[in-house]
Amino acid sequence: MTLSEMRPGASAVVETLGGAEAEKQHLLDMGLTPGARVTLIGTAMLGDPLIIKVRGSRLSIRRRLAREISVSGGETQ
Amino acid sequence: MKTIALVGSPNCGKTTLFNAVTGLHQHVGNWAGVTVERTEGESVREGQKWLKWVDLPGVYALHPYSAEEKVTADFLSGGEYDEILQIIDATALERGLYLTRQLMRLSRPMTIALNMMDECQKRGLRIDTRRLSALLGVRVLPISARDGQGIPALLDALQAPAKKPENPVESPDAPEQLAAARYAWADALCQQVRQGNPDTRTRTDAIDTLALHPVLALPIFAGLLGAMLLLSFGRVGNGLSGLLDTAMLSVQGMLDGALRQWQVADGLRRLLTEGLLTGVGSVVSFLPLLLLLFACLSLLEDSGYMARAAFLMDRPMRALGLSGRSFIPLLLGFGCSVPAALSARAMRSQRDRRFTLLLIPMVSCSAKMPAFAALSTCVPGGAAAIFCLYAGGLLLAAGLAQILRRTVFPGEAAEFVMELPPYRLPLMRNVVRKVLRRTGEFLSRACTVILLSSMLVWAMGRLTWTGAWASRTTESILGSIAGLITPIFAPLGFGSVAVTAALMTGLLAKESIISTLAVLAGQGSIRAALASCLPTSASALSLMTFVLLYPPCAAASASIIKGLKSRKLSLLMLVGQFALAWLGAWSVYHLAN
Question: I need a labelling partner for B333 at 20 to 30 A (CA). Which of A14, B233, B275, B286 fits?
């Protein structure tokens, strides 16, 4: 399952990250590492971008990038 | 004198600490070759400078992917400093320690300041700084930069040399594994030194339930923006402007009287009172607006709401090829292009910044309104014409955006991942400092441009080529130049010297278009002046289109050009604006006929 398919309010564990080198590194730096717990707080209108909470920080992530982050253990919409 | 390199992530309170330890002893410059600001300062005690600070840009890590990270990493691996001071937001300890690990690999003397301890206390979190210090091998001091708590102790501690941390062993690995390992280390440390639950529902969560509510978010956003615009462009802003105008008039009167008393030559006296002071007056007229707008914007930024605004507007802005961060500068453009440009210049991504700056002139500013209003009287269905003009202008702007994103600015807008910082009450000291600095930047640059061009236009309008006083404006330098240019406007339906000269003065200030036209046409009223210069309503429409699209006032153009930092783009912009205005007016004229 990808991050973009999570239900708002649900929690999951990060598995792998896709995206370009710079994007991936930025996500990793912000705490989105394999094994980290991530919670989907909500989205803007049209479902883009998404807001997630990871390691105590709130991040806004564009849907395109959220599709490249696979997670496990969460509930789909 | 020791030099300290100040490092920390964005939103960790680094600026507050920097301001607290340096006071007024700061200087802002640029890092060589990039558009990143370099701020340095000194700590002063009893009139003596005893500590030097280099405030590095806020970064989350030291990878060379962004200009800020490169600048910070390069500086830290170089030798222009003695010790590192890292500021960590204690409420985001894991992320701070992630950066700490990378800093430790530099093996330089370092100290850590754990900021926002007051917030930690409120959340029931306790951090054992002594234990953390022992585990890391460097000094760790708790502070709360907002109230100044812990800062004297920090400064005292900095007098003694810092220790070099042990260089952590790391095997080269895939980025994911390396980051995971570093965070695992950070997580383990947090377990050992932090007590309490860091994931409790906070005030920020509560406020965000409203600010990011699926239904209420946009109305709240619109309300906040509306309040800001109403304050700056409405009663308060206008009231202050009025006061300033009155003050300027008295200054003008006093100067005139004084110069006459000293029997200064007529020409010089008039140059100073009419030319120079009018220029000064027009610069000063921007001040109330700028001060109010910058105050509102700084409050929005420092409170943390700005990030939410950028989040809400991200998707719609991406349809244009921009990011949510561009929304507010473009919105400000409806009021005045000067603060719009100044706001856009604060954007981090160079591509986004330049793209936004180029679009700002296409959002028609409020100073053009008097011209539109007057011209619309010559057109049947006047108010509808103005509406169509604005709508057409916006469509054109959207079209231009599409062209620009495929040619000059390929790629996606930056900030595909953005932190939404916790909400914090803005510190008034910081807000005042920001407002004064931004207004000062405007004054120092736009000032010279406006003053010089005011005096030049005044002289050109009053003198003939031989240096004598012109009895009629058509005899003046301005008049003859306008006469030469006028044929260009013939195909557009408004080829008369009066209109040309009016458009030329409009390059200085849009408000003067109609007044100049009235004076030059030599008729009794504005209506009559317009009637004599614009034979048909098609001419009026065409002139309105030209005014909509041609370059903005000197202050705005100067602000935009300074932000573009590219002679090529600036030239392209000016030429493009004239070309677009001419073509637009020509099309409208022929369509309307």
Answer: B275
Q: Model ipTM? A: 0.94
pLDDT at B48 over 60: yes
Tokens 């920080």 found at: A57
Interface of B with A in 98-117 (CB under 8 A): 98
User: b/e per residue, B151-174, with b = 16+ CB within 10 A?
Assistant: beebbeebeeebeebeeeeeeeee
Chain A, window 4-63: residues with a beta carbon less than 8 angstroms from a chain B beta carbon: 16-17, 21-31, 33-36, 41-42, 44-46, 48-49, 51, 55-62
Rounded distance, CA B287 to CA B290, Å?
Answer: 5
pLDDT beneath 50, residues of chain A: none
> Which pLDDT value is given to residue B219?
93
pLDDT exceeds cutoff 60 at B150: yes
Q: Report d(CA B339, CA B442) in Å as an integer.
A: 9
> Is B485 a residue whose pLDDT tops 70?
yes
Determine the longest span between alpha carbons in chain A, in angstroms. 29
Kindly tell me if the per-residue pLDDT of B531 is higher than 90: no
How crowded is residue B452: how many other Cβ atoms within 10 Å of its Cβ?
A: 13
pLDDT at A76: 59
Total count of residues recorded for chain B = 593
The tokens for B261 are 């008393």
- Rounded to whole angstroms, the Cα distance separating B392 from B252 reads 41
The token duo for B343 is 């706001």
Phi and psi at B420, nearest 5°, equal -100, 100
DSSP-based three-state secondary structure for B3:
strand
Segment B439-466, tens digit of pLDDT: 887 787 667 777 787 788 788 888 888 8
Here the contacts of B428-434 (C-beta below 8 Å, separation 24 or greater) are B429/B19, B430/B15, B430/B16, B430/B19, B430/B298, B430/B302, B431/B295, B431/B298, B431/B299, B431/B302, B433/B19, B434/B294, B434/B298, B434/B302
- B494 alpha carbon, distance to own chain's centre: 36
Which pLDDT value is given to residue B446? Answer: 67
Residue with tokens 């042990």: B166
Rounded CA-CA distance B290/B423 in Å is 25
Mean pLDDT score, B111-139: 94
* Mean pLDDT to the nearest integer, B320-325: 90
SS3 B264: coil
Q: Are B82 and B4 in contact (CB under 8 A)?
A: yes
Taking alpha carbons only, the member of B69, B39, B65 closest to residue B54 is B39
B288 pLDDT band, cuts 50/70/90, is confident
Torsion angle (degrees, nearest 10) of CA B282, B288, B290, B295:
170
Q: Quick check: A48 and B198 CB within 8 A?
A: no
SS3 B84: strand
pLDDT at A75: 62
Which residues neighbour B311 within 8 Å (Cβ) at sequence distance 6 or greater?
Answer: A44, A49, A51, A60, B212, B324, B418, B420
Cα of A77 to nearest chain B Cα, Å: 17
Lowest mean pLDDT among B196-210, B285-299, B515-529, B563-577: B515-529
Mean pLDDT over B134-155 rounds to 94
Q: Where are the alpha helices (DSSP H) in B197-304?
A: 203-211, 217-233, 235-261, 266-270, 277-303
Identify all chain B residues contacting A26, using CB atoms and an 8 Å cutoff: 60, 65, 416-417
Q: Are the C-beta atoms of residues A10 and A40 closer than 8 Å to each other?
A: yes
